[in-house]
């Protein structure tokens, strides 16, 4: 490398002092240096210097934006400013979600000469099968996770909207885990079915003798969550009277225990969730508009399972480990076809229940269609039959799409190896990935 094209030694020794993994790249995606934290946690044995970031982190042979992903380096070159994204990266521990922050470094003439890339793994979500936490890698899931990564480090109130069973509580927990409050409690409150009086004393606590049965003083959940995150699930179910008290808590940061006169200071971050249409409830006078604005600083929609159907095989692998630990269950291709075509109105919770039932019905190691409940098989079979009748056959594209996605999900090596395995050029592989994973 010509001397004028080398980064300043001061910059390199500064990067080495940073506790988070950092690499230094040139404008052509080439890694010119990696700090000690990166070498310890991310490098997989071989030296990364001289190789490209997309090859090391993604096992791609082209930059991310040409492989259908958002590339922070390309974005940084265009915008001239710092860019953040969440990417799935190959690391020394396998494939992980990593928060990437890319900062451009300019030379004396003001031109961008280098990029410093900081990487922080997001441990609350996984792109591979795992036995706990959030699992997924479909575009809709990654988009949602990108918003989680962006909002988590702030103190902003987050409203999670999504159908029942989509994983809102797990997402709330992931927000907590990725926040500065992770060492403090995560307290979840189910707001549905709690009468107003009980709701208030549960949330704010009560003094001794505050009401019949209050034989001792009790701290509330706001206090229990102190320093951490309070998760209000089914927030749309909170009675109007209690909505006022919640609004006061959020506006002043203070509350009173039931039966007490003194104000207490709250130190919580609020994450709430609902599957109800809050805007419609506001129009009907059932939900306060001012509270809505307070809780909804940063809205995140958790996608329905049918919007991330390409995650079904991965979720199955992960959930089987949770519902039948100790058994090495797998799903036959025919049963997989049925599950991938079913609409799952109850989302991931329904998928989990279906697998739990199937694991009880199956004595061996392979779950077949016969182990799935009739109400899962029937609509899929009816749809397939209708398709055959309407078109005179099953669409070849559907068979190809399902087979292709199954191969992608079960493959653990590089994209290059996958292309070879499927007998495709890498270009065609990326085109098909874009085409099939987008729906
Ligand atoms: N992405 C995911 N990866 C792994 N498991 C998931 C995922 N999403 C949901 N689950 C599982 O699905 C079930 C339902 O999730 P959860 O209770 O978080 O849903 P919810 O959206 O809060 O539902 P509700 O609106 O009914 O409260 C749980 O068992 C959870 O572990």
Short description:
The protein is an alpha/beta fold and 439 residues long. It has helices spanning 9-17, 36-41, 53-58, 72-79, 139-151, 168-177, 196-204, 221-224, 240-252, 278-283, 289-295, 312-323, 333-341, 347-361, 374-391, 396-410, 415-422, 426-437; strands at residues 22-26, 31-34, 83-91, 94-106, 112-121, 125-126, 134-135, 158-161, 186-190, 205-206, 218-219, 229-233, 254-255, 264-265, 269-274, 298-301, 330-331, 366-367. Strand 4 (94-106) and strand 5 (112-121) form a beta hairpin.
Major sheet details: 5 strands, antiparallel
Shape: globular
Rounded to an integer in angstroms, the radius of gyration calculated over CA atoms is: 25 Å
Number of DSSP-assigned strands: 18
Number of helical segments? Answer: 18
What is the strand content?
15-25%
* Ligand inventory: adenosine-5'-triphosphate
- Write the CATH architecture name of the largest domain: 3-Layer(aba) Sandwich
Mean of pLDDT: 86
Q: How many distinct domains?
A: 3
The main sheet orders its strands as 2-1-5-4-3
Helix content: 40-55%
Structural class: alpha/beta
CATH topology of the largest domain: Rossmann fold
Q: In the CATH hierarchy, what is the superfamily of the largest domain?
A: P-loop containing nucleotide triphosphate hydrolases
Unreliable stretches covering 5 or more consecutive residues: none
CATH class of the largest domain: Alpha Beta
Distance between the termini: 45 Å
Domain Sigma-54 factor interaction: 134-360
Pfam families: AAA_lid_14, HTH_8, PAS_4, Sigma54_activat
Keywords: ATP-binding, DNA-binding, Nucleotide-binding, Transcription, Transcription regulation
Organism: Pseudothauera rhizosphaerae
